[in-house]
Each structure stands twice: as structure tokens, then as C-alpha cells.
Amino acid sequence: MARPRPLPVDPLAEAKRQWLAHGWTDAADGMAVVTSVMRAQQLLLARVDQALKPFGLSFARYEVLRLLAFSREGRLPLSSVVARLQVHATTVTSTADRLVRGGLIVREPHPHDGRAAMLALTGIGRDLVERATVALNAEVFAHPGLGSDDAAELVAIVARLRRDAGDFTDPRPHPDPL
Fold first, then answer.
1. 81 CB-near residues (< 8 Å, 6+ apart)
2. What 3-state DSSP class applies to 171?
3. Distance CA 89, CA 78 (A)
């Protein structure tokens, strides 16, 4: 995939200039924050998608596989997957359906709740997620486009934004194992 030519001017800086010129000074910084984060997300997701393409995975399917692979037994209740990925249950159900059709996970009955389902990683799914993780680590995560100090600062800033938005409370030093 050819990279587009860089624009001669940062369109987000121009948008902020326009916000200020139109008298929206109280909202200009916030508009710049929101649009900058959204554009950065687009750029990073494009890199992730490119790394996962050879494995036939979307990032959503990768996240489910990786979460299951991190769990002690390679299986979790569907409700736990929903909670940990912080997405709607219908999204996880749809993602799980595709993974089941691909032979990467199976649905199992919950051992204690007849109404609940368990999602369990298959051997093929475990192999695929491990190979995809190697690719993501090499092509995206090891070099996200920021130095380590900037990356740590960005993660801390975004964590404060997420915490203040109600995404989580201050975590314990070590999250509970899966």
C-alpha cells in the first residue's frame, strides 16, 4: 500500500486556527484534542490492519483471540470478554461467530450457569494469535512512532482522560489474573 504524500500544512492546526478565527476560543483546544486523537487512531489502526491482513484477522477478532490466549485455560465466559474488551455484547457475539466459523474458537456451555456461554480457544486459534502477535510486535508495537518517553507520557495522559470519563477507577498495582 503506497503511503499518501504528506500535506504541506497540518489540517488539524488549520482547523484550530479557523475555530479561533470564528470566535470559538473556549472550544478550540478541545476540538484540536479530539480530532488529533481521532486522526492518530486512524493512522495506528491502518498500521495494525496492515500487520493483521496476512492472518485474515481484524483487530476486534485479534483482541478476542489474544484475551483468550492470555487466560489461564484459554477460555472465558462471554460476559468476561465483553467486560474486559469494553464493547457491547452484540459486538463480541458477532466477532465470536466469525471466529467460530473460522475454527479459531469454540462455544462451550458454562460449567455453572446454564444461560451463559464460554468462549474457548482452539489449537488453530492459539497458533494464529501467537503468529499475529509476533507480526504486530515487530511491525507496530515495537515502533509505535514515538520515543519511549513520549509514549509513556501519552499513555499517562490518555489514561487520565479515560479515567476521568469513567472508563476505569485507579487500578490496583497488578490486575487480577484472567
1. 64, 67, 68, 92, 96, 119
2. coil
3. 8
DSSP 74-90: SEEEHHHHHHHHT--HH
CATH of 58-141, one of 1.10.10.10, 1.10.238.10, 3.40.190.10, 3.40.1190.10: 1.10.10.10
Neighbours of 121 (CB within 10 A): 25
- Separation CA 118–CA 82 (nearest Å): 12
Q: Tell me the pTM.
A: 0.85
Tens-level pLDDT at each residue, the chain (178 residues): 566 788 899 999 999 999 999 999 999 999 999 999 999 999 999 999 999 999 999 999 999 999 999 999 999 999 999 999 999 999 999 999 999 999 999 999 988 887 888 999 999 999 999 999 999 999 999 999 999 999 989 998 998 898 889 888 876 555 555 5
Domain boundaries, the chain: 58-141
The rounded distance, in Å, linking the Cα atoms of 104 and 116 is: 20
